[in-house]
Amino acid sequence: MEISRRSFLKIGSLLASSAAILEAPDTIAASAEASPALKASELAWLEAHSAEAFRGSSWGLPWAPGSLRVPQLAQLALSDARYPLQSWPLAYWPDGSLKWTAHALAPAADGAPPPASLSLAAGQRAAPASSFVSESADTLRIDTGKLRVSLSRRGKALFDLIEGPGQSQAKSAHLVALVDVGGEAENESRVREVYESAISELCVENAGPARVVVKARGSHRRADGREVLPFTVRLYFYRNSDAVRIVHSFVFDLDEQRESIRGLGLRFGVPLAGPAHERYVRFVGDNGGVFAEAVRGLTGLRRDPGAAATTAQLRGERLPELKAVVSKNLNYIPAFGDYSLQQTHPDGFSIAKRTAAHAGWLHAASGSRAAGTGYLGTPAGGVAFGLRNFWQSYPAQLDIQGAASEQAAITLWLWSPAAPGMDLRFYHDGLGQDDYAKQLQGLDITYEDYEPGFGRPYGVARSSELELQLTAATPAAEELLAISRRIQTPPQLTTSAERLKQGQAFDELWAPASHTPASSELERQLAWCFDFYRDQIAQRKWYGFWDYGDVMHTYDTHRHVWRYDVGGFAWDNSELSTETWLWHYYLFSGRSDVFRLAEAMTRHVSEVDVHHAGPFSPLGSRHNVQHWGDSAKQLRISTALNTRFFYYLTADELAGDLLHEQADAVNRLQQIIAGRKVGQKAPEGPDVAHQAAVSFGTDWGAVSAAWFTEWERTGNTQYRDKLLASMATIAAQPKGFFTGGGIMDLRTGAFLITQDNSIAVSHLSAAFGLPEICSELIRAIPDAAFRKAWLDYCVLYNASAEEQTRALGKPLGPLNLGQGHAKLLGYAGRELAQPALRQQAWKQFFKGQAGILGRSFVRQRIDVPQVLNAVDEAPDVSTNAVAQWGLAAISLLATAAAELPGS
Predict the structure, then answer these.
(1) pLDDT, tens digit, 9 for 90 and up, residues 450-496
(2) Cα separation, 45 vs 485, whole angstroms
(3) CB 449 within 8 A of CB 220
(4) Do the bridges between strand 169-181 and strand 191-207 make them parallel or antiparallel, or are there none, so unpaired?
């Protein structure tokens, strides 16, 4: 098979005409042709409490083509100039104008909380302050005005020293991993191995007047030099801030059959001075309660130290002179130097303390959910510390050691050493499925696509967010609660749905909620769907270090549980675009709880459900009892399409890394043949080393999203050219998208033009982001042939057998997911200005084929003793159906609102 001369010339012409589609990065900055006057972009906090205890925030904004160019970026100013602002490009339109910009907001110098709303517009910005980082060959030094930080480029420490207000300090922060080696048998001993961080690279990733981001990369090193568990850690410093935000990510690369992580954490030192009865420990509960003690407590003694002393100690203040009857016997009052808060279950934590390592632990307190925030310090200063999503990502732990000495240590355990080891072994022995025929039989009964060696967790990743704040004194309870709320729900600036739409954010298959009488019932049902899943997460306890952020796939009405233990029916892994549905519903509704759930799902899917190292990287894993367990390793799960939402709305650097990781993901399809069990073969011929079989649906939808994102972010024309070539050669196929797939030349992105007129169509092709990315491509890139090919697919997939026969020579036969595919008709009806198609779209949507009918949105209560705990269920609801229903509803309200019955 070869590319025909006509197609080759067409590709060449398209590439030549697109030479100016995206200017090279060095010419973009010089491109300053006139743009329309910029209107103010109104900004507001995602949550109402975000302004309290504010220590900095970053966010993204979209811009319509031609409305903002790079030279104008420096002119953007906030409505309140007290708050340092920093702006930089995130993505470009093909004409070189800015598509997405990122912005960082730092606290005011006087510490005043930012207002509830701000605006960003062209204006008179104050003379920009210089960055507050200085570099040498060996060290970095940062001065925020509230913190002075020293970091070494090599060694084990993420930072050497942070000096804060008063006498507060944090020293020698490093990572710790405990690994148990050995078997499960009672008589088989285990060996505990200790690893500490070894930094291979530490650099300034982003620096400006408002913030500095330091990126550290390395591995955990054992004493004998073995390195495992590669990590990336970012430290965020904002001007005028006394806090540092830390984003930690690691990749699992152990032998799960013989090794298990028993502890994984961040440890740093806190120097302490003064008497033990003026050293204070705090822990915060998720209910707003605060555990508050002194290392050496003076209350409850046989001899009363006096009201002034006890009051001061309870407040964490310096004590007045003690009564002689107490002061002469202080050495007989135990000083409890070690504290441990352990959250080993989402509904239970305990606090214990002891005097020293040689002594036993005393139970101090218990509770349901800890907020993951603590404090250690003296009246002259200390450190508040916290781990985000603490109980949601159990087992987690906070340890304070040596608080009775001059040098205490604090460890924020991402995986608690008090919990059992991290057991990531596959959950069954293969059940005799040693060939493809048996594996297909297994798939038929449990929906699990099993294959030996494919269910390993090797290469999966997990991120955590931590924060340290240095204080001049012991924070009062309300102040510590405000710090804890900030850590758990970081302040996030956003803009209105209308402004996002005006800036052409993402695809064209969404619009802000209109709140009309005709749309009210659909809006109610959309809210019902989200609320149901939000509540199911809470009721079913879908939490845990490796699970938080995901939801289940299908329900078991007999047991009244989701099918957590049945093959491919368990964890959803974003099957049929659950993640896209959540982000579209956020764009539609603007609800903060939707944003936070979508954020958690993006973190989970892009990290846990994707292999980042090893033979399957960087592909994702299909839905399964274990997130990595299925042998179907697919681009449709790792697709950049979903991560783009979170990245562009927040400017999150880790998400940016994961997007870049997908840029060449299509190359892995050379080794992982998706249809290998049903006869699909690898390409053959002289160019086989540069070819892969790529479907035009789930595969190319992910490939095009990755290439488009890499192009618009970096200006790399290699990805532009591949994208354009792939679009041109899909359109040039005899049946366009209905050809189903083809052989791609991985060097150019072009598909071979088949001479076969056969048709291949799958109901899944448009269920994993293909409609969304096609709408973006059609808007951004002028290619009439590709637009026609896609609109033909949108119309004919949903057409009658007679219409399909006239256009394609034969009917497509019975097809699935009719309700979800109604959005294709709505989009085509708008693009082709055909109201009849839009009317047909609504009829097809409300028919509900392979979807959900309105009467299904009903919960029923299942009470004990039928179940262990009372729960709500909706028997007609599945995650696949809800995701496709929600996407179709939001899309049709955007593209065919005038044709909605009752409008």
Answers:
(1) 999 999 999 999 999 999 999 999 999 999 999 999 999 999 999 99
(2) 14
(3) no
(4) antiparallel
Do residues 244 and 95 both lie within one domain?
A: no
721 and 701 in contact (C-beta within 8 Å)? no
Helix (H, G, I), strand (E, B) or coil at 885: helix
* Cα–Cα distance measured from residue 383 to residue 471, given in angstroms and rounded to the nearest whole number: 6
Please tell me the predicted confidence (pLDDT) of residue 130: 85
Q: Which domain CATH number covers 179?
A: 2.70.98
d(CA 290, CA 284): 5
- What dihedral angle (degrees, nearest 10) is formed by the CA atoms of 797, 799, 805, 806? -120
Please state at what angle helix 592-607 crosses helix 578-589, rounded to 10 degrees.
150
Q: Which two tokens stand for residue 472?
A: 């001049």
Do 143 and 114 share a structural domain? Answer: no
For the chain, the distance separating the N- and C-terminal CA atoms, rounded to the nearest angstrom, is 52
Are the beta carbons of 554 and 882 closer than 8 angstroms? Answer: no
92 inside domain:
yes
Give the E-state strand segments of 416-494 in sequence order: 461-471, 493-494
* pLDDT tens per residue, range 520-537: 999 999 999 999 999 999
Nearest to 595 by CA among 646, 550, 553, 546: 646
Contact criterion met (CB below 8 Å) for 335 and 404: yes
pLDDT of residue 127: 65
**φ, ψ for residue 302, nearest 5 deg:** -65, -30
Summarised one tens digit per residue, pLDDT across range 328-379 is: 999 999 999 999 999 999 999 999 999 999 999 999 999 999 999 999 999 9
Non-local CB neighbours of 840 within 8 Å, separated by 6+ positions: 798, 825, 829
Enumerate long-range contacts of 498-504, CB under 8 Å, 24 or more apart: 499/41, 499/42, 499/61, 500/62, 500/587, 502/64, 503/61, 503/62, 503/63, 503/64, 503/67, 504/62, 504/63, 504/64, 504/65, 504/99, 504/779
User: What is the pLDDT at residue 186?
Assistant: 65
> Are 841 and 825 a contacting pair, CB within 8 Å?
yes
- Asked whether residue 61 is domain-assigned, the answer is yes
Q: Is 675 helix (H, G, I), strand (E, B) or coil?
A: coil
Q: CA-CA distance, 837 to 841, in Å (whole number)?
A: 6
Nearest CA-CA partner of 794 in 748, 744, 858, 841? 841
Q: Give domain status of residue 539, yes or no.
A: no
pLDDT band at 14 (very low <50, low <70, confident <90, very high): very low
| pTM > 0.70: yes or no | yes
Residue at which a domain ends, from 472, 488, 504: 488
pLDDT grade for 841, boundaries at 50, 70 and 90: very high
Cβ proximity of 643 and 635 under 8 Å: no
Among residues 93, 122, 151, the one where a domain terminates is 122
Spatial CA neighbour of 68 closest among 26, 40, 106, 104:
40
pLDDT band at residue 752, thresholds of 50, 70 and 90? very high
Average pLDDT in the chain: 94
For the ranges 110-119, 125-134, 162-171, 854-863, which has the lowest average pLDDT? 125-134
* Domain, as residue range, for 57: 31-122
Which has the closest alpha carbon to 762: 840, 829, 674, 682? 674
Closest to 525 measured CA to CA, from 845, 828, 896: 845
